[in-house]
Amino acid sequence: MKLIGSLTSPYVRKIRVALLEKNLPFEFVVDSPWETSTHVPDFNPLGKVPALVTDDGETLFDSNIIAEYIELMTELKAASPNAASGLQLFPNDRLAALRVRQLVMLADGIGDAGVNIFLENRRPADKQYTEWIERQTGKITRGLDALERHASAGSRLGSDKLNLADVAAGCMLLWLDLRLASLNWREGHPALTSLVDRLAARPSFQQTTPPL
Ligand SMILES: N[C@@H](CCC(=O)N[C@@H](CS)C(=O)NCC(=O)O)C(=O)O
User: Fold this and answer.
1) Which terminus of the chain has fewer CB atoms gathered within 10 Å of its CB, N or C?
2) Backbone phi, psi, residue 189, to 5°
């Protein structure tokens, strides 16, 4: 398997962490879609990372499709001897799994709004659209409060076992530290802070820390 992505993208990190937690070997090809020399559009017509090239040569994109694929592959392998064991991304119960997927989308939505602000902030000051930034900030604020309610209901998000929602939230929130530190997301979110601190101590997160 070959994963194409940048070192800073929270969506790419979500998949790198999931693969490491599952003990699945993969080749990581560093490619930033913002560079003029990028090959990302060859793998994803939308020009976004992550993209995955499977051992069968199929190309998949969008982090959540890739997550579904690697979960499916490990389920199939689990039926065979010597299967790699590791993190189960979604609970077995289908309704519980739906709730985990909902929380993944919430974490991703916070990331999408954060990326929109980050890009807007890079435009010349007189060309920045303040109302747009405020709209995106509202999504992040409400999203963080919703995640906090879930995190404070248990030690994990949406399930009592580590799952893809924890990983997605951890990657998004650590990305906010990197790109939008002034949002100070930890303030008023003690359960999320505790969750992210525990996640950040895991080898899978330590091995995927973005360069400064
Ligand atoms: N929904 C997508 C989002 C991916 C995404 O937005 N990736 C950003 C990097 S953080 C990107 O590649 N942006 C390039 C672009 O929008 O042209 C996923 O989960 O894979």
Assistant:
1) C
2) -130, 65
